[in-house]
């Protein structure tokens, strides 16, 4: 695992950068499925298939450490009974909170507390638990169990019927809320009843995506559309039941609660909360991720760009069709998208689909915007992070490529080919 920083480049043409990086032995016993930075970018958490989560801190020397800044044992603990798929941080206004999504059908809320607590896992204990030779290491009284881990389990949200694949805290202005997506095709929104007592969360909303029918002409992904009362019909994709793969909140302070949800069926849709109906409604269906002949391919990631003074929104999606797309959605004034497209959102803040731009046709697994929503980062299996920025004509161009350390990747490939 490498943490990379780079210098600025001019947007005239792509630059291949020699990055300043710190190679970190992540210490996990399985693949690292997710990495999430906190609000200030001085901490990050890693989630792994070995059921553990590890938190890293940036010390005064600019080096990343796991555990106490002065050293000590890793700040690591067992977070689920299965693989941990995603991890995310809340806004610091609500404290140091982490949410983890696991293959055990649950989401767990963790809070950092001052003082030494008995760790739920140490490196030795983790090996023992993964081998199955121990059934309850949490009761061990060994002095080695006391580590620098200070994360306390506050709540477990276990409404999902299948593995939870994605989780994300809502923007600060919406309060302490959490959206989760699972393989059963359902997005669930939770809200803390009391921000001072994180043990109690209520299920505040449910979005059923598995039962939503696809348009007949939506498979090729040629254009987005508004969803109205008369929309629907057509065939349901055979991949529809594979569930939700990703989601992203709209961070606009003057917008109602809005989510972009990506599904393994290749569909990405925008849902908005309707105060009148007290439910979530699909308002825009973005162009599908599909092959040229219309075969659906799953959406791997979605990212809603922070809005800093723009009159429109930008949403990035990437999928198994080897495409990275940026969708432009404009703020409307009532009505909705097309004709009688009743979006069921507030008439003064409806959304209108404007268009989609294809950025990259290579294998892209994750995408993320910067804090101002002006630069998009994308990454895939090639060990390269690409940075995209729009020019004066509004067209996105690759302004730089950050190359990571692919030595380990090349060695693993050589072993497989032997």
Model description:
- The protein has 418 residues and is mainly beta.
- Helices cover 5% and strands 43% of the residues.
- It has helices spanning 123-131, 407-417, and strands spanning 2-5, 16-18, 20-23, 32-37, 43-48, 52-58, 64-66, 76-78, 84-89, 97-102, 107-112, 151-157, 164-169, 177-182, 186-194, 197-208, 225-226, 244-249, 258-263, 268-274, 279-286, 299-304, 312-319, 323-331, 351-360, 366-369, 375-379, 384-390, 396-403.
- The strands form seven sheets. A five-stranded mixed β-sheet has the order 2-29-28-27-26, with no helix packed on it. Strands 4, 5, 6, 7 and 8 form a five-stranded antiparallel β-sheet that branches. It has a five-stranded antiparallel β-sheet with strand order 17-21-20-19-18, with no helix packed on it.
- A hairpin with a 5-residue loop joins strand 26 (366-369) and strand 27 (375-379).
- The longest helix has 11 residues, at 407-417.
- The chain is globular and about 50 Å long.
- Mean pLDDT is 78; it is low at 5-12, 15-19, 117-149, 212-221, 228-241 and 335-348.
């Amino acid at each position: 695992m490498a943490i990379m920083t780079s210098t600025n480049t001019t947007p005239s043409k792509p630059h291949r950068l020699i990055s300043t990086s710190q190679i970190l032995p992540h210490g996990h016993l399985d693949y690292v499925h997710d990495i999430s930075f906190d609000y200030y970018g001085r901490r990050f958490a890693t989630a792994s298939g070995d059921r553990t989560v590890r938190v890293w801190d940036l010390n005064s020397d600019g080096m990343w450490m796991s555990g106490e800044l002065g050293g000590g044992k890793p700040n690591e603990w067992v977070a689920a009974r299965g693989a941990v798929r995603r991890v995310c941080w809340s806004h610091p206004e609500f404290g140091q909170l982490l949410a983890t999504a696991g293959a055990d059908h649950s989401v767990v809320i963790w809070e950092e507390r001052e003082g030494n607590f008995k760790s739920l896992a140490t490196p030795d204990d983790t090996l023992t638990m993964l081998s199955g030779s121990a059934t309850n290491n949490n009761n061990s009284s060994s002095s080695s169990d006391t580590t620098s881990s200070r994360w306390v389990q506050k709540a477990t949200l276990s409404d999902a019927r299948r593995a939870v694949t994605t989780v994300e805290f809502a923007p600060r202005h919406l309060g302490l809320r959490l959206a989760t997506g699972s393989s059963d095709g359902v997005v669930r929104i939770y809200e803390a009843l009391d921000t001072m007592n994180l043990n109690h969360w209520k299920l505040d909303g449910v979005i059923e995506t598995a039962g939503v029918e696809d348009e007949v002409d939506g498979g090729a992904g040629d254009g987005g559309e508004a969803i109205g009362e008369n929309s629907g019909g057509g065939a349901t994709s055979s991949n529809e039941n594979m569930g939700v793969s990703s989601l992203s909140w709209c961070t606009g302070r003057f917008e109602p609660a809005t989510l972009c949800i990506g599904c393994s069926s290749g569909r990405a849709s925008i849902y908005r909360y309707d105060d009148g109906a007290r439910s979530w409604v699909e308002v825009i269906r973005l162009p599908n991720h599909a092959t040229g002949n219309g075969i659906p391919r799953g959406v791997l990631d979605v990212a809603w760009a922070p809005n800093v003074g723009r009159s429109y929104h930008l949403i990035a999606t990437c999928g198994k069709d080897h495409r990275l797309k940026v969708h432009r959605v404009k703020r409307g004034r009532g009505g909705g998208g097309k004709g009688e497209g009743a979006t069921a959102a507030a008439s003064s803040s409806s959304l209108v689909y404007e268009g989609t731009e294809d950025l990259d046709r290579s294998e892209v697994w994750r995408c993320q915007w910067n804090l101002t929503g002006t630069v998009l980062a994308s990454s895939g299996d090639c060990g390269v992070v690409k940075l995209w920025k729009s020019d004066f004509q509004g067209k996105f161009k690759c302004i730089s490529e950050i190359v990571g350390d692919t030595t380990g990747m090349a060695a693993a490939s050589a072993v497989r080919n032997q």
